[in-house]
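Subject — a protein and its fold
Fields — amino acid sequence, structure tokens
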Amino acid sequence: MQVIEYRRALHRIPELDRDLPETLAYLRSVLEPLGCALFSPIPGALCAFFDFGKADAIAFRSDADALPIQEQTGLPFASTHPGKMHACGHDGHMSMVLDLAVWLDSQNDLKHNVLLIFQPAEEEGEGAPGMVAAGAVDGVRALFGLHLSMQASRSGDLVCGTDKFLATTNFEVFFTGQSAHAGLAPHEGRNALLAACTAVTNLLAIARHGQGASRINVGEMHVNETPNIIPAKAWLRGETRGENGDINGYMLAEARRVVDGAARMHGCRSRFLCQSHCPGAMSSPELVDLVERTARDMGSFREVRRKADFWASEDFGWFMNKVQEDGGLAAYLQLGADRPDGHHTSHFTFDESVLPRGLELLARLAVAALARRPD
């Protein structure tokens, strides 16, 4: 089927963050012959607007970026870009929304306009806030996002709405000390690596919040010195998460305190920088109802679950909050798909036979959402 061919073509050309030239070129090759207007609110993004002459629009969002992982799936359509792969299902998300565009082009009398969003930099949490600031979802009355697998881990399952997106902040820390000869004059040095290691140990020991879920992780640490030099510079990168903005704020404040204390303990200086932030989010109950009715009417899902708590973070929350603040509705679906390994791993792939069912659901939602315009 065409949706599977789209997925395999996109899987071969994974790209990172906002740098998506081949991905965007492929998307444009399908979209440009259709009766839609294409525009890029921010670098790396692509939107397709189907104008049916109506005042309002509904929107469907897919994420387009991949991950810096060397693929080891052995698939015949594996990544052709060394060190990069679609290890989170974004190729599947794009393929369904892309084929939805082809279906929309055959429609003549929809009651709302339709906006399709292909978003960059989801993995870094930096794509959606820029698109929101650029007005990409202004005027959208109903917004759908979708992710393969996650809590819907079996083919044939569907989660109609997702709640409890964790608020999150990515941060980086620069430690500066004083270099010295490690054998002749170690007492003259101020070891930035030691300060960073002390910080990591104590960051992971921050007391978790008693009124909701909280997380912290450090994923990278770098030093570039030879063994006979006391390192004067060290760098680390991590993230905090919280069940809401206040809890994430607590974790971030504690992280700053720990970093400052670790640096001063070892006579070093530290610079703490926040890189990106994603808010918490909840699906609109009215739109979840609509998804559930539509999925049950299809009769092809093995299990239809009304909601699941995410306990993870997604910059789609920026889109959701914006649309809801403007009086619209938003929901985040999870389409079940069997997979041999977890997300963000080198062996990740998914049962692509679920894609036609996902495409049918999106098409039915377009019609159903348009017929049930929120007041």
Notes: The chain has nine helices and 14 strands. The first helix runs from residue 2 to 11. The mean pLDDT is 96. The radius of gyration is 23 Å.
